[in-house]
Amino acid sequence: MAALDMGLVGEWHRSTEQLCAAGYAMHLRFEPNGLYFGRSEPPGTFTWWDGGTWEVKAPGQLALSTANDAVVSYDYVLDARTLTFIDASGCRFAYRRDD
After folding, report:
1. Is 68 strand, coil or helix?
2. Are 83 and 98 spatial neighbours (Cβ–Cβ below 8 Å)?
3. How many angstroms separate the Cα of 22 from the Cα of each of 13, 14, 42, 75?
């Protein structure tokens, strides 16, 4: 069974606008059953994180299934209401928890 960090469960919106993060979802929703849903902005534009599965592979490492069905691992830091990702290229971008 997949390990889940229940602190990730809920709604998130991207709070940083780095050019390197443009292909990632603007809005994320992590479900407690290991599924996630991503939305782009404007709606209908491409996002690598369109929806699929999520699991914690190791402390600070989150694996997400991506738009091409590959499962990709990302480093992450969860600090209260901020979720920061670092991808394999070193791109660092953050999300804020929605109320």
Report:
1. coil
2. no
3. 13, 10, 11, 18
Burial class (CB in 10 A: 0-12, 13-18, 19+), 47: buried
What's the pLDDT band for 6 if we cut at 50, 70, 90?
Answer: confident
Residue with tokens 């994320």: 28
Assign 1 a pLDDT band (cuts: 50, 70, 90): very low
**Distance from C-alpha of 20 to C-alpha of 18, rounded to nearest angstrom:** 5
Q: Which residue has 């997949």 as its token pair?
A: 2
Biggest alpha carbon–alpha carbon distance for the chain: 35
Instruction: Report residue 93 as tokens.
Output: 């971008």
Domain extents for the chain? 6-94
Looking at domain 6-94, its CATH class is mainly beta
- Cα 43 to its chain centre, rounded Å, is 17
